[in-house]
Design a protein that fits this description.
By secondary structure, this protein is α/β, with parallel strands linked by helices. Helix content is 44%, strand content 12%. It contains twelve helices and ten strands. The strands form three sheets. Strands 1, 2, 3, 4, 7 and 10 form a six-stranded parallel sheet that branches. The longest helix has 19 residues, at 210-228.
Length: 308
């Protein structure tokens, strides 16, 4: 049994839309994980499947995106617990110190002073096409509905909507939250693995142009190879979005492994190595986090769903 625990940010600064995990909670998670599992770097484990003892429990620690707080807050805690993690970076974010589109979207709604937004497109539901805001609360309430919907759109549709939002909220300065390549190299020098999370954090499963998909996959790996002197083995699918085309093009691009987000335990005897599940953890109470780590919460959800 292998549990791959997925994190994104570890920070003391709070965020009302996407809250980073507090360092104290991250430390508590690692205490539990290192006590109850054999912690091993995911790529090491995947490269030596015959060395896995089926009677033992393994765990890996992985991060997506490439935020600077991974180095500032998470890395020292990982070192304290003797854990080597894997970090999957969005190369455009590292190159230009810009957050992912998901973070930019939330940041714009938090900090704009504009009081209205129009998204006049047929693919946008009528209830979301025009919004008037009375303050930050109404903006955040709208954003909490809009963001999940945008994830359901085709890639080109979502880009149209995001462009409209950026043009409207042109009073917002983007935060500088990402690592640079020297900082990524610092993680690598400390023994952590660096893999790919595409060029632009696009949702691969919603893209239709195979040339564009391959560019996102192959291009990000080539940038990592240029900066770190090795071609990464692993692609982490942004927002957990992938399909059969994604998998085939990931293989064509030269990857050996693909990472999904399924909140499930990884079974090497059953799971495809290009659909490796990860258990995503959030800044919640430790009780709820514990229920996620032990898969109790997911199992309860399955029972409820089955009974329905």
């Amino acid at each position: 049994m292998i549990k791959n625990f997925l994190f994104h940010r570890v920070n003391t600064v709070r965020d009302p839309l996407w809250d980073p995990m507090h360092p104290k909670l991250f430390d508590t998670c690692l205490k539990y994980i290192t006590k109850n599992y054999i912690t091993i770097q995911l790529e090491e484990l995947l490269s030596s499947p015959n060395s896995i003892d089926p009677t033992k429990q393994y765990a890996s620690i992985v991060f997506d995106d490439g935020y600077k707080d991974n180095l500032e807050y998470a890395a020292p805690i990982l070192e304290n617990h003797g854990v080597k993690a894997s970090f999957y970076v969005v190369t455009n974010c590292i190159d230009h110190n810009i957050p992912t589109w998901t973070h930019i979207l939330e940041h714009q709604f938090q900090f704009t002073q504009k009081d209205s937004l129009v998204l006049d497109h047929e693919f946008i539901p009528s209830a979301l096409r025009s919004a008037k805001f009375t303050g930050i609360k109404s903006r955040l309430d709208y954003a909490k509905i809009l963001k999940p919907f945008l994830k359901t759109l085709l890639h080109f549709q979502r880009n149209i909507a995001l462009a409209d939002i950026s043009l409207t909220f042109d009073d917002v300065k983007l935060p500088r939250l990402m690592m640079n390549w020297d900082e990524v190299r610092e993680l690598r020098s400390a023994g952590h693995y660096i893999g790919s999370h595409t060029i632009s954090h696009c949702m691969l499963g919603t893209m239709q142009d195979e040339t564009e998909i391959l560019h996102e996959l192959r291009g990000s790996a080539e940038i990592i190879e240029r900066e770190l002197n090795y071609f990464p083995e692993t692609i982490s699918y942004p927002v957990g979005s992938y399909n059969k085309t994604t998998i085939e093009l990931s293989k064509k691009a030269g990857y050996k492994f693909g990472l999904a987000v399924k909140q499930n335990i990884y079974d090497p005897t059953k799971d495809d190595i290009f659909e490796i599940p990860r258990i995503e953890l959030y800044n919640e109470s430790y009780l709820k986090t514990y229920l996620r780590m032990t898969n109790i919460l997911e199992n309860v959800k399955k029972v409820i769903h089955y009974r329905k």
